[in-house]
Design a protein that fits this description.
The radius of gyration is 17 Å and the shape is globular. It is 23% helix and 29% strand. The chain contains seven helices and 18 strands. It starts with a helix and ends in an 8-residue tail after the last helix. It has a domain at 5-137: lpxc deacetylase, domain 1 (Ribosomal Protein S5, domain 2), CATH 3.30.230. The protein has helices at 5-8, 88-96, 119-128, 185-192, 201-209, 238-251, 269-279, and strands at residues 16-18, 22-27, 34-41, 48-52, 60-62, 77-79, 82-84, 102-106, 130-132, 139-141, 145-148, 151-156, 161-167, 177-182, 198-200, 222-225, 228-229, 257-265.
């Protein structure tokens, strides 16, 4: 994969938005509906915000942790009567590339699943490019931590944005892994964005039986079964990298450029969002 330096080298010290609108469409992983996604440039101070353009008045749902509700299998945001599910991959693509301000328009209740990763959206962003906005990007040192049994997310003080993922899914191709990296646009684009969502075969069967993951398929998820993964892995530790992608998307809900070394051990959306709520940055300009 070759990426344009226009966005991947964009410094996190500046606020950024898209140079032009982009649009993608695909099936939602959980709803099974085909959803149109459009991401549009926005002025400084807008933040990242979803708009349900299929609903009267196109209600706005800010991408902030105090709007996060359900976190089973994905992260859902709610504002008033409007909601949007599975926001983490879209937010990871924008935040991972350093974008601070954008309107995210959807014509349905869930973000499209694309190929199960953030790569299609990252490639679309890099194709149109990004532009710097006036002022300096707000920085917010995060701290704290949350735990549930052996699962936890905690923050070690750092003047950089660093992520460590520790996970083990008990499968020969998805076993114990530890992944650590500095979160920069270039690292995100090359090393994290291509990692796809995944599950174990018995988990997929249970979700199907429960009427969940209606849009899940081998085209947008990797399923680990007795014979190995359902498709060739993009990285030997692709599950760990995808957990990092989810974490980055969920921590975009902090609402400012965060600094700290985030250590996630066997964590998921619930713990990610709980940490984002603890670390939620004060809003200087309302969405």
């Amino acid at each position: 994969m070759t990426f344009s330096p226009i966005a991947v080298d964009a410094p996190f010290s500046r606020p950024w938005t898209l140079a032009a609108p982009i649009a993608l469409a695909s099936v939602g992983l959980h709803s099974g509906r085909t959803i149109q996604l459009s991401v549009l440039p926005a002025p400084a101070g807008t933040g990242l915000a979803f708009r349900r353009v299929d609903l009267p008045g196109a209600p706005v749902i800010p991408a902030l942790a105090n709007h996060a509700t359900q976190t089973y299998l994905s992260t859902t945001l709610v504002a008033g009567e409007a909601s949007v599910q599975t926001v983490e991959h879209v937010l990871a693509a924008l935040w991972g590339l350093g974008l601070t301000d954008a309107w995210i328009d959807l014509d349905g209740p869930e973000a499209p699943g694309m190929d199960g990763s953030a790569l299609p959206l990252v490639e679309a962003i890099l194709e149109v490019g990004v532009v710097a906005l006036p002022g300096l990007r707000r920085r917010h040192a995060i701290q704290g931590g949350v735990a549930e049994g052996e699962r936890s997310v905690s923050v070690v003080p750092s003047d950089r944005s660093v992520v460590t993922i520790a996970c083990d899914y008990g499968h020969p191709d998805a076993g114990a892994r530890i992944l650590t990296f500095d979160l920069t646009p270039a690292v995100f684009a090359r090393e994290i964005a291509p990692a796809r969502t995944f599950c174990l075969q018995h988990e997929a069967e249970a979700m199907r039986a429960a009427g969940l993951a209606k849009g899940g398929s081998f085209d947008n998820a990797v399923v680990f079964g007795p014979d190995g993964p359902s498709s060739a892995l993009r990285f030997p530790d692709e599950p760990a990298r995808h957990k990092a992608l989810d974490l980055i998307g969920d921590l975009a809900l902090v609402g400012a450029q965060w600094s700290g070394h985030v250590v996630a051990v066997k964590a998921g959306h619930g713990l990610h969002v709980a940490l984002a709520r603890q670390a939620l940055a004060p809003r200087e300009i309302p969405v």
